[in-house]
Amino acid sequence: xxxxxxxxxxxxxxxxxxxxxxxxxxxxxxxxxxxxxxxxxxxxxxxxxxxxxxxxxxxxxxxxxxxxxxxxxxxxxxxxxxxxxxxxxxxxxxxxxxxxxxxxxxxxxxxxxxxxxxxxxxxxxxxxxxxxxxxxxxxxxxxxxxxxxxxxxxxxxxxxxxxxxxxxxxxxxxxxxxxxxxxxxxxxxxxxxxxxxxxxxxxxxxxxxxxxxxxxxxxxxxxxxxxxxxxxxxxxxxxxxxxxxxxxxxxxxxxxxxxxxxxxxxxxxxxxxxxxxxxxxxxxxxxxxxxxxxxxxxxxxxxxxxxxxxxxxxxxxxxxxxxxxxxxxxxxxxxxxxxxxxxxxxxxxxxxxxxxxxxxxxxxxxxxxxxxxxxxxxxxxxxxxxxxxxxxxxxxxxxxxxxxxxxxx
Length: 409
Prior knowledge:
By secondary structure, the chain is of the alpha/beta class. The chain has 16 helices and 14 strands. It starts with a helix and ends in an 11-residue tail after the last strand. The C terminus is likely disordered.
């Protein structure tokens, strides 16, 4: 089945008033970092924190109630929540199958939207196989996360909204998993503005769409911060649309994705999941590709685990030299530890943690090593603190810069 602008406009009518028409806004902070104007389509502001509600609602409204005993979906996150949210409002009993290791917060949110959650399998592939069997046994209607014409049309409403709100857009950057989101957006945007560029972004762990387009065997797997686009198999419906309408696909490594999530929070003031941050990562990785264009980034979702976000932010402070761990060698004499802390404090460093160990380090009996975690303004401020400690006669090493403990003098 071919997806057309007419299908997407029909989907827009169906979802109007039930799905948020999210804003497309200029981000001054991220624009400054990127060196160009960047506009963000904030799908993280949807009811469930993700664009998935669009396709879910359009698909569910296409079902005939008298022919549907219930619906079922397989998801580790956003798709399941989107289906559950609107199934409850439309009166469809919903079952969402999730892998056993799905975080408790995602399970709780999905149940809160009224769905029955079944935990099955050690991976999404295992969960999908179980879903297929359960759908057949209980005669439930399966809602595919991306490879369905109604779902694709629903996601394509994002393209309509972006060009209605910002007609001067000439590039849209979109996360790519199975391809439903970018296929829908590309169909809508190219129909309105044929010369607009559509750029997709995948994670290096799951470059399935890039490989499929190139005719290579799809190799995908492993852990990724962008789990929302960790898809091994491109859609049969989405692949030909993407081949015809998408201009380029950029692949990002994990460090680039992590950096983008951190920048979104620290500079953009937005809580964004890994998949939602990859468009920013693509612009930062390939700035010349976007330099002279009016660029819109689809921030597809904001459902990141808070513990993961905390880790990303702390690691960002470490990379930026604002959180450092120093090892300081001092003689084991009264008052020396106090002098160390005084030097750090006077230099403007904030001690987060300090470990004073005499017994387990390989040091002489009258010497001790101190490990100190310090908050600083930046890398040059850290160097200033190290210089002051060295000036007091105490060798100081940044542990992130060495593979093992430095030799004792």
